[in-house]
Structure formats: structure tokens, C-alpha cells
Specification:
Layout (H helix, E strand, L loop, with lengths): L2 H5 L17 H8 L3 H10 L5 H8 L5 H20 L2 E5 L11 E4 L6 H12 L6 E5 L6 H9 L2 E4 L5 H20 L5 E4 L14 H8 L7 H6 L3 E8 L5 H13 L7 H13 L4 E6 L4 H5 L7 H18 L5 H10 L11 H15 L8 H25 L2
Parallel strand pairs: 1-7, 2-5, 2-6, 3-4, 3-5
Antiparallel strand pairs: 6-7
Helix pairs in contact: 2-7, 5-6, 11-17, 15-17
């Protein structure tokens, strides 16, 4: 058992959203392994394993930490070897192991943003983090159970106005409790949903929500309690690039177009299994010192805006910039500012890559549609560089 966790009594108000307690882990896992749909998914994800053998291993686990160490980490080892040229990180040494952080990252991938972060933390000999996950992705009860056995807590979405506020207060309260009482790190994306064009900006409503869990304090003091540490996630290639471009195209043709749950599942599968090239996580220092510089008498809305800028700047300054970003920027702006960063052959290969990605689209495309998607994908790849140049001015 996780002794730290067992010492902390979970308030009943968080029972429906918090990760499953280690004392209940074995019982909940024994229910999950009998679920036919879970068995089917495991067969697809781990085709080399006999389910009976894996089930025996799963039933031998007693904690979420064991589950991550013995199941998730080896799975990610294999996945990263097949789908990346390497997962690297920088800056983690600037964060105190004993101080739990709220890691706020830009949002590239539905599943792997948090999964790869947990993997990096475990590799560094640290505890992995708890993960915020929207209930819109939990389309079956067994998925809800699985993610909560893997240290996830639930973000309730698509509610009425009053329930949305109640859910935000509950969620914020839980995060403050997890960091101050359970001493757990947390992962949270800087906005709801992935940023489709990689023009990463922190949502002001997210920052406001984070203060609800300490409403007796000022905005700054409430946020300092969470020890926010931004992380910049950089992908050389985004396997979902053409799917994101297709979403832009569909909305351009029909402003009322909405993604289906099936679309979300395809994005999740493509993000997990598609090739990403190099992936880098830049850990940046806790922003508490920056928060202290905000004048106490500043208007509340301006305070929230300032905090968003602090997080955005930390992310923008710390992107790892790849050749794909330089090439996209030069093509998009029709200049040669970064021509020394790549060869003509690399430029040609990247242009072909974008064209090949567009050809994977499952709808009939006109020449204009292809041009539109190509342009959107150039924006996706150039925006991290554009934002970094602006932040470093």
C-alpha cells in the first residue's frame, strides 16, 4: 500500500472524480479484467501477450504505482521505441523532488502528453503525476475504471451552467487537496482540448477555476499553493496533423460541424501509434516567484491575464525547435530566414510528408481543400517557432 495515501482521508465530496484508492485497487482491478471490451483492447494493444498471463500479472498488483511501473512503463518503452526517434527532457533538475507541482503543459496529444510525462518522472526516480482527463473521453464505465486505476481524476464536461460551476469548484478543491494533503504532482493541459494549430495559449477560465479550491485566498495566493511549473512539449512530427487540418476544413465548410466520439477514438489511436520523430519535454521552474511580482491591487481580470502570460511565456521560450518548424516557417512566410537550419533535400522531404499526410484523409478533397489543409499544417508546424521568436524579443 502507498502509506502516504493511506494516512490521508479522502473527503467524500471527491469520491466520484478522484483516482481509485490503493486500498481498493485489487478489488477494482479484479472487476476490470473480467470486462470483455477491456480484454479485446488489450489484445489489440499488446498482441504478443497471452491475456491469461497478463490477467495473472494484473491481479498480482496492489497499487497504482505498481501498475504504472510494471505495466505502463514497459508498454511505453516499447511504444516509444517504435513511434519516436527518442523522448528527451531538460530542466527537471530545477524542480525539488519533495515539492509537489501542478504541471501545466501545452496540449499536443489526448493520451500521450500525460503518459510520456509520467514515464519521464518515473525514469528520473520520481513519483508519476495524477492526470486530469475529460469525461467526454470516458465513453464506457470500464474506461473510467481503467484511467482511475492509472492515477487519473475526472474533469466533468458538457454540463448546464449551474452544474458547470459546481463541477469546477469540486475539481479545483480536489487539485488543491491532492497537492497540499496527498503531496501528489498533477498534470493539466493549458486549455480544454488539444490546440489544433499549435498556437499554444493558456485559457483564462482554467486559471480562474484553479483558484476556486482556495476561495478564502487572493488569486495569487491560491495559485501559489499549487506550485505551478509549466512544461513545453515539442514534437518533430504530429501524427494527428492531417486530422487536425481536416477538422479546420470541416468547420470552414460547416460552422456547426462537430466531431463524433468515433473521431476522438481515431485521434487517440493515431496519436498513440503514429510516428512522432523526436519528442522533447522542457521542464521550467515553478512560477511562484513570478506570481509574487504581480501587484496586490491589480484588477482581478488583469491578474488572470498576467498569469496566463507568465505560463505562456515559459512554454514559448522553452520549445525545442526542430527542422520541421524552420522549414514550415520559411514556406508559410515565403522567405529564407532559416535556410541555414536545413538542406534543400530536407525541405523537399518535409513537403512530401505533408502531402502524403493529406492523402490519408478519409473524405474526397478538391485541389482547394488540399491547399487549405497544407496551409493549416504549415501553421501548426511554424507556430511554435513564431511564438518563441516573439517570447524571446
Amino acid at each position: 500500500m502507498n502509506m502516504e495515501e493511506e494516512k490521508v482521508i479522502m473527503p467524500a465530496e471527491y469520491n466520484d472524480i478522484c483516482p481509485i484508492a490503493d486500498k481498493d485497487f485489487h478489488n477494482e482491478m479484479s472487476i476490470l479484467v473480467e470486462e470483455p471490451a477491456f480484454q479485446q483492447i488489450v489484445g489489440m494493444v499488446l498482441p504478443n501477450y497471452k491475456y491469461s498471463e497478463l490477467k495473472h500479472i494484473l491481479l498480482g498488483l496492489n497499487t497504482k504505482h505498481e501498475f504504472q511501473l510494471k505495466i505502463m512503463k514497459p508498454y511505453l518503452d516499447g511504444l516509444l521505441a517504435k513511434t519516436t526517434s527518442g523522448l528527451t527532457s531538460s530542466g527537471i533538475e530545477n524542480l525539488d523532488k519533495d515539492i509537489p507541482n501542478l504541471f501545466i503543459t501545452n496540449h499536443r496529444d489526448i493520451v500521450l502528453d500525460a503518459g510520456q510525462l509520467g514515464y519521464l518522472l518515473l525514469k528520473e526516480g520520481r513519483k508519476s503525476c495524477e492526470i486530469a482527463i475529460g469525461n467526454n473521453l470516458l465513453i464506457f464505465d470500464w474506461i473510467n475504471k481503467l484511467v482511475r486505476l492509472n492515477k487519473s481524476f475526472i474533469v466533468k464536461r458538457n454540463l448546464g451552467r449551474i452544474q458547470t460551476l459546481q463541477a469546477a469548484i469540486q475539481l479545483s478543491g480536489y487539485m488543491h487537496f491532492a497537492i497540499t494533503q496527498k503531496k501528489e504532482c498533477i498534470w493539466l493541459a493549458q486549455r480544454e482540448g488539444r490546440c489544433k494549430d499549435s498556437n499554444d495559449r493558456t485559457q483564462e477560465s482554467l486559471i480562474k477555476m484553479l483558484t476556486y479550491g482556495a476561495r478564502d485566498k487572493s488569486i495569487v495566493e491560491a495559485l501559489k499553493e499549487l506550485n505551478i511549473a509549466p512544461i513545453a512539449i515539442s514534437y518533430e512530427y504530429d501524427p494527428n496533423d492531417y486530422l487536425k487540418a481536416k477538422e479546420f476544413l470541416m468547420r470552414d465548410k460547416n460552422p456547426n460541424w462537430k466531431k463524433s466520439p468515433q473521431d476522438d477514438l481515431i485521434s487517440m489511436q493515431t496519436g498513440i501509434q503514429g510516428f512522432k520523430g523526436q519528442v522533447h519535454y522542457s521542464f521550467t521552474p515553478c512560477i511562484n516567484d513570478e506570481l509574487d511580482k504581480i501587484p496586490a491591487d491589480l484588477d482581478k481580470m488583469l491578474t488572470v491575464t498576467r498569469i496566463c502570460h507568465i505560463i505562456d511565456r515559459a512554454i514559448h521560450e522553452n520549445y525545442k525547435i526542430f527542422k520541421t518548424n524552420y522549414i514550415a516557417h520559411d514556406i508559410l512566410f515565403d522567405n529564407k530566414d532559416f535556410v541555414d537550419k536545413y538542406t534543400p533535400e530536407e525541405k523537399e522531404a518535409f513537403t512530401k510528408y505533408l502531402s502524403d499526410q493529406i492523402s490519408k484523409t478519409d473524405i474526397k478533397l478538391s485541389e482547394f481543400d488540399r491547399y487549405y489543409m497544407f496551409n493549416k499544417m504549415l501553421q501548426m508546424y511554424s507556430n511554435p517557432l513564431t511564438n518563441q521568436l516573439e517570447a524571446l524579443k
